[in-house]
Amino acid sequence: MASRRNTKERILDIAEDLFAQQGFGATSVSEIAVQVGISSPGIYKHFNNKLDIYEQVCQRLFAPLADATRGMAADADFAETRQQIHQVMSLLANKPNTARIVQHATLARDETLDLLSDRWYRKFFSTISDPASNPDKEWINVPTAMAFHCMILGYVTLAPLHKAIFGVDPLHPDQLEAQLQFQQDMVDGLSSLVQRQVPKK
Length: 201
Known about the structure:
The protein is mainly α. 72% of the residues lie in helices and 0% in strands.
């Protein structure tokens, strides 16, 4: 039983790297099997098909993000939001394949995009504030969510390019901490701006 479980985990490890490097469509079951060191039929002892492999890869990658965002609320204050952004950024930096898989799915616009959107991302953004019902939380809205999402994912997916340009690894702990501080400063700046705009009662 242990050997079977280890083989399944090995398949998921290899598949995750391939999906992150070249996308779902460009990755074949036979390619996964070769890198694992088993025959293609051996894959089907553990998974129904390639999409089943993809779904289980996503389960491993996105479940921690779901846990991190589960506590988000439309009435969260800036300190809470800053902490949540820090946690999400840290998770993505530790597992950069997550952002790369999202990038490939977005570009492919195939069934993997539907899977990520319906199964995971709607959960992540389910607490976005409705300004009509939360007038004091208008900053927690769709444009703000998209901006921070792009900034966080883009930082991870563009890390190899920025390393080639600037000669530093953006995912090195020191660089990552500087980026996290920059994002926290942005949230603090947004907090100050909103507070100045709130009319006094």
